[in-house]
Amino acid sequence: MKINRIDNNIIHGYDYELIEDNKKLKIIYAGNLDLYYILQFDDEIPYGEKASKTFDITKDNYELYKLFDELYNNIINGMIWEDEKRIKQSSIYKDLVDKNKNICWISDEGQRELEDSLTISKEKDKIHLSFERNNQEDYPFKSAFSIGIRICNSGSRYDRFNIPFMRMFQKLQTIDPNYHQIDIEELLYQKRKDKN
Question: Which pTM was predicted?
Answer without folding.
Answer: 0.93
